[in-house]
Specification:
With 195 residues, this protein is mainly alpha-helical. The protein has helices at 46-66, 82-98, 107-129, 161-185; strands at residues 135-136, 156-157. The protein has a two-stranded antiparallel ribbon. Helix 1 runs antiparallel to helix 4 and helix 2 (82-98) packs antiparallel against helix 3 (107-129).
Length: 195
Amino acid sequence: MTDTTDQPEPGPEPLDDDSTEGQEESFEGPLIAEPPHPVNWNLLTADAAEVEWLELNKWINWMRRTYGLGASVLPPFWHRHPELVWELSALHLHWLCAYDPEQNGSAPLGWHRDFAEARGRLREWVAACGTRLDRDRPTRQTVWPGEPPAAPVEDIIITDRNEDFVEFVFADVQARRQAEDEFYAGLDLTTGELP
C-alpha cells in the first residue's frame, strides 16, 4: 500500500479554447503570482499586458461556459473593444477578490449581485459597438465639432476567434514593446532623464 497523505489530489485538466461545452477550465496555477490588483491597461508593460490578456481570456472562457453567456452579453471578439475589456477586467478583479480565501464568506454573493448589474452594462456595450458572433467592427466614435470626419466603419468576418485573439494580443504586446524600446533609447543612462 502506498502512502498518499502528502500527495495533492489531482485537479481537473486545463482545457484549451476549443474544449467542449459543459467542461470546466482549471484555475490552478495562475500566470499572475501576486494578490489581485486593479489593472490599468493604459500603463501595462509589454510583458505585464501579455500576462493580463491571457489571464483575462482564460477567466472569460470559464465564465461564459459556467454561466451560459450568449454573444449579446459576452461576444467572442470582446478583446477588440476597449469598453468591453475595461468592464470585463473590472469584473474579473472583483471575482478574484470575492473568491480570495481571506475574504468574507458573503463576498461571492456580492459578486453575483454586481455581476447581474454588469451584464446589463455589457449588453449596452455590445449593442453600441456592434460586434457579433461571427463578425466585428470597430466601435463607432462620435466626431466632435472641429475634428476630422471618422473613417467608415465596416464589418469584418472572423472565422477563427482563437487565432484572432492570439494575433490581437501579439500586436498589442509588440506595440507596447516598441514604445518601451523607444522610451529607453531616448533615456540618458548617466542621469536617468529624457533629453
